[in-house]
Amino acid sequence: MRRYRLFDHTADLGVEVYGKTANELFANAAFAVFDILADLSHVSPAVERKIVVEGDGWEDLLVNYLREILYLFNGEGLLLKEFSIIDIDPRHLEGTVSGEPFDPSRHRINTEIKAVTYHQAAVRETPKEWTARVIFDV
Description:
Helix content: 10-25%
Number of helices: 2
Oligomer: single chain
Radius of gyration: 14 Å
Shape: globular
């Protein structure tokens, strides 16, 4: 099963994410952020962080989660590679992320993601899978 696909959105970047469960959907969305951001083949899961996020429904929870992990790059310089969701419901998420500090001699930034937006944010559950759409300000 594919994790995500990009779609065109004026000056921004849109992503449609897929998962068999809500856990997998959110982990795949986080993976998409960092897969778009950098070449993850040179990133090791050396540092682990616990993530706890609250939201007012699936869309708000997704945006808040992606903003939290993007902050770990922009604010703390961590390139993340592995994402695990331990507990999730429409208002609460607990998980772990792992990666390593950004090193310009080893890591290449592909596309800078400035922010995660609420514009067209959507999370849907179907009988076959979960899907989400989110727009990044690049």
